[in-house]
Specification:
By secondary structure, this protein is an all-alpha fold. It is globular, with a radius of gyration of 28 Å.
């Protein structure tokens, strides 16, 4: 793999596929729970249960997609076929979830979520593994994830701007209208963005193919201490965000008593700030390391979390600046963990001699989905336990509203604090990663040399040596199109012929060149 900096054109078109992903996932995280609870009348506890149980499906699909992606051999590469095949599943699943018919039940939601998440798995595991393989450099990988996060942030901004424009100029009503118009935009963008990535970005051929079985690979990954630590920190921080984001809509409407149409306004400002924060965190990570920069992002979010306990009706505008500060911190979440994950894969490659990037990304994808579902479910279960009523027109008690405040401000903070403590002294530094990568590159070079020798002319010992045989063979070898190692051997034969005269048993040879 190339060690020179990747072209911006390559980084742009690779990152482009993350735009429709975030265009779809951000509204799902922010609006879906309230949409199905309030507009479709589905019970909060039932919705939380389905979100958890549906992830059991991923325990099977994620390792299998990772395994088969690592072992796929086609003229287009091993990642691109899976990404291409994900498009129809994603599109039909998103259509059914974002634009449901009136009167759907919980089983409708569960079934179409499974279809959509299968498409999501087939896209994201090979796509993220491909990103890790674009470069082997510690800092260059941060550029790859930075560009991908930036394009994802553009998708997130679009998920806010599109409904915001519709609210301001076309009288779009409520969360149901936001889900509908965003779903249509996603369906248009998915084939365009993913198609450009597949067409414009080269997938480099890998030198080794993993020999390990799918579920055995997961067991081995769990023995990788740094990977376990990274996944745990990432899972906790993702759970914190997954509690925070869905509760935004409930908090704004019930605590601040603001219209639902204010939510895209809040999200617009936070998304803009979060997007501009990504290059900042890339620079910070260059100076203090990825793990410390990530911890600093977690701390930034923690600073403002308690302020939400003190806001009340009519104070929406007071919430906006605190949410913008929090968005600066979440920019670190979008960029740095994925770059750190690519570095951890190098440790496994160094130990096993195999590139099993997609297997690691399948485990990461599973952790991401589990954290998202568990976090969202915790928030919904908390609302159900405190007696919060999400039905349209419902009036909630002071105790229920206070419980909503604590669920919104304190539950995510606990997750962020724990994740920060885990990641603070993370031991994989830039220097250590570069030493590991150099060892991998040296081994790959040796393998390439051996493969070239095996593919070249075959040498057979025929009889006791004499100088004439050495001269003849050396001449034929030097005239042929051989690897440098064979030319060096030809020089050695000439040396033998000149000084041994065919009589030195230790170095004299007589050989035949096999065609």
């Amino acid at each position: 793999m190339s060690k020179k900096p990747l072209e911006k054109r390559t980084l742009f078109f690779y990152g482009l596929s993350d735009a429709p992903v975030m265009l779809a996932s951000f509204p799902m995280m922010l609006y879906m729970n309230k949409f199905y609870a309030t507009d479709m009348g589905i019970d909060l506890a039932a919705l939380a249960t389905i979100l958890l149980l549906a992830r059991v499906f991923d325990l099977i699909t994620d390792p299998l997609v990772g395994y088969f992606s690592d072992h796929t051999k086609t003229r287009w590469g091993r990642r691109k076929p899976w990404i291409f095949a994900s498009i129809p599943l994603l599109m039909i699943g998103i259509y059914k979830i974002f634009l449901p018919e009136p009167g759907v039940d919980i089983w409708y939601v569960a079934g179409w979520l499974l279809v959509m998440w299968l498409g999501w798995t087939m896209l994201m595991i090979p796509y993220y593994a491909w990103g890790a393989e674009l470069s082997t450099d510690y800092d260059e990988r941060t550029r790859v994830t930075g560009w991908r996060a930036a394009m994802g942030s553009i998708g997130m901004v679009l998920s806010i701007v599109i409904p915001l424009v519709a609210v301001l100029f076309f009288n779009l009503e409520g969360i149901a209208g936001i889900m509908k118009i965003t779903g249509i935009a996603v369906l248009i963008l998915i084939p365009i963005a993913i198609g450009l990535t597949l067409f414009m970005v080269e997938e480099r051929q890998q030198k080794t193919v993993p020999a390990i079985q799918a579920f055995d690979g997961l067991k081995i990954m769990m023995k990788n201490g740094l990977f376990r630590r990274l996944v745990l920190a990432f899972t906790l921080s993702t759970m914190g965000l997954s509690i925070l984001m869905p509760l935004n809509a409930f908090y704004v409407v019930s605590v601040l008593e603001a219209p639902e149409t204010y939510i895209p306004i809040l999200m617009f400002f936070t998304a803009i700030i979060g997007t501009f924060a990504i290059p900042l965190w890339v620079k910070v990570s260059d100076r203090i390391g990825k793990h410390r920069a990530w911890a600093a992002g977690l701390l930034t979010v923690l600073v403002v979390s308690p302020t939400y306990l003190f806001l009340g009706p009519g104070q929406f505008m007071f919430m906006v600046p605190f949410a913008m500060i929090s968005a600066i911190g979440t920019g670190a979440f979008q960029t740095l963990p994925n770059s750190m994950k690519a570095d951890v894969i190098d440790i496994d490659t160094a130990k096993t001699g195999e590139n099993r990037a997609a297997m690691f990304f399948s485990a990461w994808s599973l952790a991401t989905k589990a954290a998202g579902s568990i976090g969202a479910s915790l928030g919904l279960f908390a609302l159900s336990m405190i007696g919060y009523d999400a039905a349209a027109g419902a009036v909630n008690s002071e105790e229920a509203l206070m419980g909503l405040k604590y669920s919104y401000a304190i539950l995510p903070a606990i997750m962020f604090i724990t994740a920060g403590l885990i990641v603070w002294n993370y031991p994989l530094s830039r220097e250590r990663q570069r030493r590991i990568r150099a060892a991998i590159d040296r081994r790959d070079d040796r393998r390439a040399e051996v493969a070239a020798l095996n593919a070249g002319p075959k040498i057979h010992i025929l009889k006791p040596p004499n100088s004439l045989d050495c001269w003849k063979f050396a001449a034929r070898l030097r005239k042929s199109e051989c690897e440098p190692a064979y030319l060096l051997f030809a020089d050695l034969l000439l040396h033998c012929a000149r000084f041994s005269n065919g009589h030195h048993p230790a170095i004299g040879l007589s050989v035949q060149l096999s065609k």
